[in-house]
Specification:
- By secondary structure, this protein is of the alpha/beta class.
- It has one domain: Rossmann fold, CATH 3.40.50.2020.
- It contains 4 helices and 11 strands; from the N terminus they run βββαβαβββαβαβββ.
- A 5-stranded parallel beta sheet has the order 5-4-8-9-10, with helices on both faces.
- The chain is globular and about 50 Å long.
- The chain starts with 5 loop residues before the first strand and ends with a strand.
Length: 185
C-alpha cells in the first residue's frame, strides 16, 4: 500500500489522522469515518449532546450510514428517538417520502427515503438533524426537504465537522475541515 497524506484533527479530545482523498481533479478532502471507532462516536455524541442541551426537539434525524453510530449514541444520551433516512428504497418501506442529493464523495445523485413507518415519528415534530460531516450542504438540504414534506420542523442542525469555507454559522459542530486545492490545478 502507498503512503497516503493525512490531516490530523481533534475530535472531542481524541486525536485522529484522516486520510486525504481526491474527490475532483486537484481537490482533496480529509475523510472522517467514525464507523468502527466506538471511542470517537461516543465522545463526539457526548460533546454534541451537551451543546444541544437547550434545544427543544422531539426526534433526531440523520441519513445512513456513517452518522448512524453517532445518532444512536446521541439518542441514548438525550432520551430522544431517531430516524434514519435510507439511501435506497426497499419495497417494505411503502409510501416513502424522498428527496435527491449529490454526495461530494461520489459526485453522483443520491436519493434519501423516509420509510412510511417512520413518517409518524417526524410528522409535526421538531427534529435535530445530525450528520458526521456537512460539506456541500446537499445532504443537509435533502434532510430538510424530507422534514418539510413530513410537516415537521428543523429545530437545529449539528455535525461532528463542517467542511470548507461556507458560512456554517447556523450549524453546531465540533470543528471544521479544510478542502485541499492542489496548487498545480
Amino acid at each position: 500500500m502507498s503512503k497516503r497524506d493525512v490531516y490530523t484533527v481533534q475530535v472531542a479530545g481524541l486525536t485522529r489522522h484522516l486520510p486525504l482523498f481526491e474527490v475532483a481533479p486537484g481537490v482533496r478532502i480529509a475523510i472522517f469515518n467514525m464507523l468502527g471507532d466506538t471511542y470517537v462516536a461516543k465522545a463526539a455524541a457526548a460533546a454534541l449532546a451537551e451543546q444541544l442541551r437547550g434545544v427543544e426537539a422531539d426526534v433526531l434525524l440523520t441519513a445512513e450510514a456513517k452518522s448512524m453510530p453517532l445518532v444512536y449514541e446521541m439518542s441514548a444520551l438525550m432520551g430522544l428517538p431517531y430516524v434514519v433516512l435510507r439511501k435506497s428504497y426497499k419495497s417494505y418501506m411503502g409510501d416513502a417520502l424522498h428527496a435527491e442529493t449529490v454526495s461530494i464523495t461520489t459526485g453522483k445523485k443520491q436519493t434519501l427515503y423516509l420509510d412510511e413507518k417512520d413518517f409518524p415519528r417526524l410528522h409535526g415534530k421538531r427534529a435535530i438533524i445530525i450528520d458526521d460531516v456537512i460539506s456541500t450542504g446537499s445532504t443537509l438540504e435533502g434532510m430538510r426537504e424530507i422534514a418539510r414534506k413530513a410537516e415537521g420542523t428543523v429545530a437545529q442542525v449539528a455535525a461532528v465537522f463542517t467542511e470548507g469555507e461556507q458560512d456554517w454559522s447556523g450549524i453546531i459542530a465540533l470543528g471544521n475541515l479544510p478542502v485541499f486545492i492542489d496548487e498545480e490545478s
